[in-house]
Amino acid sequence: MSRPVYLIDGARTPFLKARGRPGPFTPVDLAVQCGRPLLMRQPFDASAFDLVILGCVNVIQDEMNPARVAALRLGLGEDQVAFTVQINCGSGMQSIDTAFRYIREGSHEIVLAGGTEALSHAPLVYNREATEWFGEMNRAQGPLDKAKAFTDVRPDFFSPVIGLERGLTDPITSLNMGQTAEVLAHRFGIERATADAYAVESHKRLAAAQEQGRLDGEVLPAFGRDGSTHRHDDGVRPNSSIEKLAKLDPAFEKPWGKVTPGNASQITDGASWVILASETAIEAHGLTPIARLVDSEWSALDPAIMGLAPVTAATPLAQRHGLDCDDIDLWEINEAFAVQVLACLAAWQDDDFCRDVLGYDSAFGRIDRGRLNVDGGAISLGHPVGTSGNRIVLHLANAMKARGVRRGIATECIGGGQGGAMLLEAA
Amino acid sequence: MTDILDQITPDDATEAPKAPETRHWRREDGEAHTLWLDCAETTTNVISEEVLRELDTLLDDAAHARPEVLVIRSAKQGGFAAGADIDGFANLRGEEAVTLLQQGHAVLDKLAALPFPTVAVVHGATLGGGFELALACDHRIGIDGVKLGFPEINLGLHPGLGGTFRLTRLIDPVEAMQLMLNGRSAHDRKAKKLGILDALVPERHVVAAIRAAAGGSLEHGNGGFRASALRTRAARSLAATRMRSESEKKAPRAHYPAPFALIDLWEDHGGDATEMQQAEIASFAELLDSTTTQNLIRVFYLRQRLKAAGKGKDGIAHVHVIGAGAMGSEIAAWSAMQGKRVTIEDTELEPLGDTIRRAADICNAKHLNGIETRDALDRLIPDPDRLGRAHADLVIEAVPEKSDLKEKIYAELTDAMKPGAILATNTSSLRLSDLVDATPDPARFAGLHFFNPVSRMPLVEVVSHDMAAQDTLDRLAAFTTGIDRLPARVADYPGFLINRILAPYLMEAMVMLNEGHTRESLDRAALSFGMPMGPLTLADQVGLDICLEVARSLRDGLDVPVAETPDWLRDKVNEGHTGRKAGKGLYDYNSEDPPRTPEDDADQAVIDRLILPMCNAAVECLRKGVAPEADTVDAAMIFGTGWPPFRGGPLHYARIRRDIPDTLHRLEDRHGPRFAPDPGWADLG
């Protein structure tokens, strides 16, 4: 059975820049913030969902299986099956893809699929000796034992690293994600100035999209317990300029590296949901779809060049449907790093690469900036890892509809050397 | 969906049969000899004379059977027992009361003296007489969520069935006295920590805990008991002095004698249980005869009566509040905390953020735990896109007091609300009759007037008008009860009931300020009458702008004269000095505190000028049918304004005092026609 699957609606929180301390929301708090109004604006009852799938990479201890916790907190009922998926930076797209396949094969009619991440809540990680020492202290009986255990303490026990730093380091190659981007910049000859120019444009596009209301209805305000209100993605820097970015030091490979805090994606908190439905559900509830999900693809390559994986994921998808580069009207490529997106674009224009790696006769083609990340990307709005894949699919659908275009691809690179891609068509 | 947990949970606590020749007890002879209290014809157990008399016989049977262990517990879902049977003792006087108390004490003494282990298994509300029954057992096993306490002090009494001497001997006597003096309950873990409970377990471990008690392995959980240090009278006197000064701060002895009687009782007899038991009976009987206690018992019934006016189902799961000002926010936060799903809209985001902060503060102030707070805040949804309008069963409009603004919103709601939904306005100074034409459905429109702050003011006026459907009013009253507030059903009248009666108190104080009285002397005179706040402090609290608005609406709408508003008051409002919320009003909150202590020897003439206009307005409201009967007027004033409960309400006070119409005539001669006694005095009786 192969049934059509539609994207009905979706919403996300503003992406909130991590500012050195835990932000106002946990991963599930974020999912609840945008989930409540999204559910309320549907013409059907929340109990209609067959399944909830949520992508989340950094699950916090109090919210094991955040999908289920979110489903219960959103009032979807005790009988709501919900599971969490994780494929690192692709988790929010993995949730959509899983829902897509369930609906396509006919076992489910309407599914809530999301992604959430609160990177500002990433825990402190203590080294192994320190952890063992804590265990010893806890086991110690009586003051004498405790005192003895206490004498074993070493100053470096109290120098935890932020778990996030470890999470952003590839365990196989021990390269930091930023270093994998440096590898690509080197191999594809991407200049620092080109990367900075790309980053400035990302900020300008997001600022324009916010100002012109192109994110209205997609980004819903969030409200903290402290009374704080969050209306927009707050990492945007409308006044960013090439001159300002040129002054920044490299973030990962000093002093000659090309990746700086200014041309890399921002560390942020945020959640996003989409609603996927079958034709049966659309008829039953009188729904109007935004777009149709046509197909998806996942690919993998050497972790040291993980940033190139959009190319190896998206191209087979186009090929399978007989689509050329120019048949795709809009692209969302998650901006992990400016040099990484630029490396992908370069690879697609490279005859040798496309012949040797992708099996084309010549270059796939040129994706001009006019149809790529039209309303900004992770460099300006941030990259809450478990959420980003969901966001790019949702925004692609909204942007396609707003511009009245036919086809789009959303694709992302995934830490660990993988890539995901989805092909959408106008509904 | 089938609730599977519910399916596998038995409906009833016990299937044990009624004990022979009893109405209120079930008996189960198993491993333990269990007496289940299950009061006939009610869902809540109370310790009545009959309950104790039946228990007496059952204890004789048990003594004869000599079981390994005797267990006393409740078959009711809500709790062990809510207290003594107030109906049974409210009308007792003097010797009669002493005799009945002695009989009760004899039963509990018999229980305490049984030669085998006795265990009370307590859950939910375990209050007053119920707590005392549990205290007479050797052990108390609490089920999670139990709350034990002595609310007697709120009725102007102290425990009378042995609670005073048993609790002060069981746990740290200072802690015991605190519990009895403040009337608040000790919740599960607190009770265990204090040593009231020997074990605190979920229901599934009760049988094992009883077995432990029977086998002698359940130890008393006495929480760091320091009774020995307080065995001497000198030591108790020291502690008692401190308690007296604390009590005096909360409520003056002249108005509330019970705490002082309790402190005396412990100070004089705390070293000897038998003596203290006799003294407890005598002291309780004496308090029962006092006017304060009779009035407080009356207030207890008034509360029941208001609640009874809000029985039934409200059919309201989702509330939508329009306007996130102070009132809208409080209403939304409180309703969400009480279990409703709530959306709140405003034209700006910032007030919606403030709503969430306020809600978090209220949850904190009400000691909700982390999960309860999270759930309450999850139910409270800021709604800038106004999605809730179409989902809500009740829409509460709480926007500024401008008719054109309200009418514009009502027009938008006409096609937006779902069928059957009710629209309520929280207006305090506009007449419903002026608004009703603009509403989507006059039959489903009414007033729901909350008082600020909602989390601390229990009263809500459910305001009717000519075209309101009875069903609408009934549902709003039920909604009010459902969110743990008290509904007063009132008619559409200038200021409705509360503000109509309260306004003259504030307005007269303004006039008196003009005449040269000082702010402090006026406020302290009112405090000495027992008002919770002096009129000028209250005016600042309410907001001088609101006071002006209410004064205007009374002047426009009433057919009786009202006090003039001084020009300087209008000037203050124009300058933005609108009271406490602005930091400055009649008092300057940056540099001074309004007085909190009553005048020792207040001038009765000043008190009369402030208080009697309220009594007069209350009579007018009764005559005009603003409230259905005198009790509702009294109850509303007590729960809506904190009118001194020990005086029983403005109409009750008037009936007892008798000379008010004459005094009003004299005030009329001196100060003008606004004091003219209402024609309704003749019918007051």
TrEMBL record, chain A:
Thiolase C-terminal domain residues: 288-425
Name of the protein in question: Acetyl-CoA C-acetyltransferase
InterPro entries recorded: Thiolase, Thiolase-like, Thiolase_C, Thiolase_CS, Thiolase_N
Residue stretches making up the Thiolase N-terminal domain: 5-279
Active-site residues per Swiss-Prot or TrEMBL entry: 89, 383, 413
Transmembrane segments: none
GO molecular function annotation: acetyl-CoA C-acyltransferase activity
Keyword terms: Acyltransferase, Transferase
Keyword Acyltransferase included in the entry's annotation: yes
Family statement drawn from the similarity comment of this UniProt entry: Belongs to the thiolase-like superfamily. Thiolase family.
Protein's UniProt keywords contain Ion transport: no
Gene3D superfamilies attached to this UniProt entry: 3.40.47.10
Organism field: Roseovarius pacificus
TrEMBL record, chain B:
Upper lineage: Bacteria, Pseudomonadati, Pseudomonadota, Alphaproteobacteria, Rhodobacterales
MF GO annotations: enoyl-CoA hydratase activity; long-chain (3S)-3-hydroxyacyl-CoA dehydrogenase (NAD+) activity; NAD+ binding
Lipid metabolism as UniProt keyword: yes
Highest taxon, organism lineage: Bacteria
Enzyme Commission number(s): 4.2.1.17
Keyword field: Fatty acid metabolism, Lipid degradation, Lipid metabolism, Lyase, Multifunctional enzyme, NAD, Oxidoreductase
Protein name: enoyl-CoA hydratase
Chain ranges of the 3-hydroxyacyl-CoA dehydrogenase C-terminal domain: 495-589
InterPro entries, sorted: 3-OHacyl-CoA_DH_CS, 3-OHacyl-CoA_DH_NAD-bd, 3HC_DH_C, 6-PGluconate_DH-like_C_sf, ClpP/crotonase-like_dom_sf, Enoyl-CoA_hydra/iso, FA_oxidation_alpha_subunit, NAD(P)-bd_dom_sf
Catalytic activity: a (3S)-3-hydroxyacyl-CoA + NAD(+) = a 3-oxoacyl-CoA + NADH + H(+)
Annotated spans, Disordered: 1-27, 571-601
Pathway annotation from the record: Lipid metabolism; fatty acid beta-oxidation
Top-level EC class: lyase
Gene3D superfamilies on file: 1.10.1040.50, 2-enoyl-CoA Hydratase, Chain A, domain 1, NAD(P)-binding Rossmann-like Domain
Composition bias type Basic and acidic residues, residue spans: 18-27
Residue stretches making up the 3-hydroxyacyl-CoA dehydrogenase NAD binding domain: 318-492
GO biological process: fatty acid beta-oxidation
